[in-house]
């Protein structure tokens, strides 16, 4: 008997499975993800503690890899010693594939101050360049400053992904020109996602990657609940609809893109 199986290999390029909201069922969930076709998961550090937890998860699960870094909202009390620890984590663990998430977040005023965010963004870009690792960029309400720092630091030499992309089509083209991928998650399923839909239509499929930002940003119809990679099909189907292609094509291309992005 011939069994016709849909191609479904998914690369979840950005999740926080070390988050306490997964404490109760993390092991079950990560195994279920693998069974459901999520063959690669990139767990992303957001501070030193979660970067350490990322190393542990990557060492425990075959299909889990990681990025270590400090999120712009968490750099308020960062020190040079933290940079050293990030460096050692990356050097000592072959499954750490990127520095992130790093960047600028101006959503809350002065939290931390812009110059402090810029300093540690630059320092972590510097570290990524030293280690020859791609970067995972977090940027909210800070498009121009992010772009300027990335250009100053020649981020195009290392590449990476602009995760949970939320800016204009023009800006997306600029990031792509610098060799970056555009991360698309659950927001694409929201009713007010017109701008992101335009980006998904405009940017070629070979520059897009799928992500969740779990446990946050759960796609419709589960918006408000805890997110996980199990909901990635809702994101992929939305992209397929927008680009008028099959969902299999979306899975296939974004899987390859993810591997190129993280050099795996
Ligand atoms: Ni994130």
Task: Provide an overview of this structure.
The protein is α/β, with parallel strands linked by helices and 264 residues long. It has one domain (10-261): TIM Barrel (Alpha-Beta Barrel). 41% of the residues lie in helices and 17% in strands. An eight-stranded parallel β-sheet has the order 1-2-3-4-5-6-7-8. Helix 2 (48-60) links the parallel strand 2 and strand 3. The radius of gyration is 17 Å and the shape is globular. The model has no long low-confidence stretch (mean pLDDT 96). The structure holds nickel (II) ion (NI).
List keywords for this structure.
264 residues, alpha/beta, 8-stranded parallel beta sheet, globular, TIM Barrel, binds nickel (II) ion
Round the mean pLDDT to the nearest integer and report it. Answer: 96
State the order of secondary-structure elements, H for helix, E for strand.
EHEHEHEHEHEHEHEHH
Number of strands: 8
The number of distinct helices, counting runs of at least 4 residues, comes to: 9
First-residue to last-residue Cα separation: 35 Å
Describe the structure in brief.
It is built from nine helices and eight strands. It is of the alpha/beta class and 264 residues long.
What does the secondary structure layout of this molecule look like, with pairings?
Blueprint: E1 10-15, H1 26-35, E2 38-44, H2 48-60, E3 64-68, H3 80-92, E4 96-105, H4 114-131, E5 135-140, H5 143-152, E6 160-162, H6 169-177, E7 180-184, H7 194-202, E8 208-210, H8 232-243, H9 247-261
